[in-house]
Design goal:
Layout: H1 9-13, E1 20-25, E2 28-34, E3 39-44, E4 50-57, E5 61-69, E6 74-86, E7 89-95, E8 103-109, H2 121-129, H3 131-137, E9 142-143, E10 149-150, E11 157-158, H4 165-187, E12 196-206, E13 210-220, E14 227-236, H5 245-248, H6 254-264, H7 271-279, E15 286-290, E16 293-297, E17 312-314
Antiparallel strand pairs: 1-2, 1-8, 2-3, 3-4, 4-5, 5-6, 6-7, 7-8, 9-10, 10-11, 12-13, 13-14, 15-16, 16-17
Helix pairs in contact: 2-3
Length: 334
């Protein structure tokens, strides 16, 4: 992102920038974030995609919006804000290049207002730490017929579990994080089809005390090639709290995970894949629970070797020697 080096004296003497503003460009609701060096970004709330801003101030505040074009590697100017102080906010106009007509701009310091999502720890943390992203994601989400919930701007969809309030709050928090990343990724291409983020979540294990899921996200945010990321999440089904691996198998070290993975690796005859895996020993495996055992996945493999990544499921009976004998969860896996 663009960053200027100096902030003009006139701005320093003005009322402190709220940094995050809400308002309208013409009839369109927006949220705008302005840094002290006059760089920033804004988003139309109906789309959720951020547009970079580069600013300067003389008698007025001028913010030039720029979209990075991945196909050309160049930035394209798509509009300019001309603003002046109005109380603690800003008023002025927005104009597209080559056009005479303008849209009226009205901005006021951000206030959360109505919260459209179920309240959760993650939602409150987001509001406090990043009100800009909060404003983008704070709108009604769509509940599908199967009970899963979709964030409409990013299309990120996560499950919900019937009669599991605390667990569902944690699932919403996980979804908030990925939806924010997906929208940021798509913003890097100006919302064009040249950037993408596709996500698939699967519930891999569920009983009255444990819940586990796997999420595979495929994304292209610019750069040399697309990327794939696989994560595993295991939660207490009653409280929604994270269940770390050591809570189940305290003696299952990274080294032991690696040995178990190689022992069951389904492509043991492919030497190139084995060489890559051996070179990656010491790396942390993604893990999640399944009905047949503990799933291990080498999410750490580099892009050029990702085709070698396979899920390996280690039967629970084979993990007895690594068990955390004080775990309240293990007996539920039998």
């Amino acid at each position: 992102m663009y960053r200027t080096l100096l902030m003009l004296t006139t701005l320093l003497s003005a009322p402190a920038l709220a940094q995050v503003y809400q308002g309208t460009v013409g009839p369109y609701p927006i949220v705008l974030k302005l840094e002290k060096d006059l760089s920033g970004k804004y988003a139309y709330l109906s789309q959720g995609l951020s547009i970079e801003l580069k600013g300067k101030q003389d008698k007025q505040l001028l913010l030039t919006e720029q979209i990075f074009q991945i196909d050309t590697g160049q930035y394209k100017t798509t509009g300019t804000f001309t603003l002046k102080r109005s109380g603690q906010g800003w008023t002025g106009s927005w104009k597209a290049p080559g056009r005479q007509s303008t849209l009226v701009v009205k901005l006021q310091p951000f206030k959360a207002g109505k919260i459209h999502l179920p309240d959760s720890t993650g939602l409150q943390k987001l509001l406090k730490a990043d009100p800009y992203t909060f404003a983008i994601l704070n709108h009604p989400w769509t509940t599908r017929k199967d009970g899963w919930v979709e964030e409409p701007r990013s299309k990120i969809t996560y499950p919900r579990v019937k009669n599991a309030l605390a667990l569902n709050r944690t699932l919403q928090d996980l979804q908030l994080e990925e939806a924010a990343m997906a929208l940021e990724c798509r913003s890097m291409g100006g919302g064009s089809d040249l950037t993408s983020w596709d996500s698939q979540t699967t519930i891999t294990y569920q009983n009255t005390t444990l819940y586990s899921q796997q999420t595979t996200s495929s994304m292209f945010c610019g750069g040399a090639h697309p990327n794939v990321n696989t994560t595993g999440t295991t939660l207490d089904a009653r409280t929604g709290k994270d269940v770390p691996l050591k809570m189940l198998w305290s003696k299952l070290t990274t080294k032991e995970q690696h040995l178990l993975y190689l022992k069951a690796y389904p492509r043991a005859g492919e030497q190139e894949c084995l060489d890559v895996l051996m070179d990656s020993r010491g790396s942390e495996y993604t893990w999640y629970l399944t009905k047949n055992g503990l799933a291990l996945f080498p999410n750490f493999l580099p892009h050029v070797a990702y085709a070698c990544a396979e899920e390996v499921v280690v039967p629970y009976a084979a993990l007895d020697e690594y068990a955390n004998q004080s775990s309240p969860y293990l007996k539920t896996l039998k």
